[in-house]
């Protein structure tokens, strides 16, 4: 007879959240054998020590974990189990994103409407611009538009814009020929990231608008479909138009500034701009800062940023130098490529006490 401290399969099923039939299956597969089996009746009994393993097994199966992977996680140490779990979740997320993209392509085929040609751009140039501007996106619950890239096609140019509320990045591209139509839409940023490699390897990419999406037509490769976001994009033109007067300009080496930001010990960064140059300073007054040579015009100014806001804005600039246009310690800073003005990023400062 079994030990009186053991539980029959029905009681253990209630404790673990697994059905009796599932427990029999997991016992036969070797994942969760019972602590004891009555040799006469064949009844299965489980110990209290097995509840945690059974609960973890149930939870892993609830997120569609294959049996082999469940076995590996249950038998692994904490670090290895976490790694395997992260890999599984990443695969699920990737598969779901791929399914969404494929579903969008299928739905577009249901609509018997010819695509609208909107622009043709050089593939490598478009790929670089997409990657640069997408650094200003963010995935925020309830605000999916912040993860999108706004594409606006005028009679002469194609403008790409993105914002995460702390940065606003925009770049203007010259198409290979005048656009046939004006057009504007906000494109799913993740879809564009997936398409970047194919875009970069294509000499020419033709943009074609269809209901709920755009097609990126590439020669000698599979065309890429990107979904449109239905939410309204922030009025970035109003933001740009309402910027105050620039009071200070500083032109500094992009490489030296990035290196100073990388070597800076804290998350909060102060830029002290004066006649002698730009100094990257810390919140700690005892920290002397990193001086950088720069060409400065206008009023001396000290302004604070979070590293996660300033660094991407500088790193995506084009060319060896960047120009910082400052309007005050509490106003957005414009970060431009000193020799090419078609990529512009606004970076929001923070207060000196690091509050937004």
Short key terms for the protein model shown above:
DNA Polymerase III, Chain A, domain 2, alpha+beta, 356 residues, nine-stranded antiparallel sheet, Multidrug-efflux Transporter Regulator, Chain: A, Domain 2, 10 helices
Description:
The chain has 356 residues and is an alpha+beta fold. The protein folds into three domains: 7-75, Multidrug-efflux Transporter Regulator, Chain: A, Domain 2, CATH 1.10.1660.10; 114-236, DNA Polymerase III, subunit A, domain 2 (DNA Polymerase III, Chain A, domain 2); 244-347, DNA Polymerase III, Chain A, domain 2. It has helices spanning 9-16, 20-29, 51-62, 67-75, 78-110, 123-134, 189-200, 236-241, 254-263, 307-315; strands at residues 7-8, 36-37, 44-46, 116-122, 148-153, 158-163, 167-173, 183-188, 204-210, 213-218, 224-227, 248-253, 268-274, 277-281, 290-292, 294-298, 301-306, 321-326, 333-337, 343-347. Helix 4 (67-75) runs antiparallel to helix 5 (78-110). The longest helix is centred in the first third of the chain and has 33 residues, at 78-110. 30% of the residues are buried. The model has no long low-confidence stretch (mean pLDDT 88).
């Amino acid at each position: 007879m079994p030990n009186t401290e053991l539980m029959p399969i029905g009681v253990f099923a209630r404790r673990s959240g697994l059905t009796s039939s599932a427990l029999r299956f997991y016992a036969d597969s070797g994942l969760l054998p019972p602590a004891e089996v009555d040799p006469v009746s064949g009844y299965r009994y489980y110990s209290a020590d097995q509840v945690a393993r059974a609960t973890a097994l149930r939870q892993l199966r609830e997120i569609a974990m294959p049996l082999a992977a469940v076995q590996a996680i249950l038998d692994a140490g904490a670090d290895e189990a976490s790694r395997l779990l992260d890999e599984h979740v990443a695969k699920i997320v990737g598969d779901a994103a791929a399914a969404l993209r494929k579903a969008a392509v299928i739905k577009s085929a249901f609509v018997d409407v010819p695509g609208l040609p909107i622009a043709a751009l050089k593939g490598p140039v478009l790929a670089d611009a997409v990657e640069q501007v997408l650094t200003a996106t963010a995935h925020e619950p309830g605000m999916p538009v912040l993860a999108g890239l706004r594409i606006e096609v005028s009679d002469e140019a194609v403008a790409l814009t993105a914002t995460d509320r702390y940065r606003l990045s925009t770049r203007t591209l010259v198409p290979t020929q005048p656009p046939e139509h004006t057009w504007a839409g906000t494109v799913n940023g993740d879809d564009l990231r997936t398409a970047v490699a194919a875009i970069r390897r294509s000499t020419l990419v033709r943009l074609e608008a269809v209901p709920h999406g755009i097609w990126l037509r590439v020669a000698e490769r599979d065309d890429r479909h990107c979904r449109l976001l239905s939410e309204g994009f922030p009025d970035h033109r109003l933001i740009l138009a309402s910027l105050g007067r620039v009071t200070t300009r500083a032109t500094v080496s992009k490489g030296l500034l990035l290196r100073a930001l990388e070597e800076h010990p804290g998350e909060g960064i102060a830029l002290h701009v004066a006649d002698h140059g730009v100094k990257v300073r810390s919140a700690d007054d005892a920290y002397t800062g990193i001086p950088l040579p720069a060409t400065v015009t206008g009023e001396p100014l000290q302004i604070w940023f979070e590293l996660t806001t300033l660094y991407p804005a500088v790193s995506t600039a084009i060319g060896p130098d960047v120009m910082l246009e400052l309007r005050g310690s509490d106003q957005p800073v414009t970060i431009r490529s000193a020799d090419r003005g078609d990529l512009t990023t606004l970076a929001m400062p923070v207060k000196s006490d690091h509050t937004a």
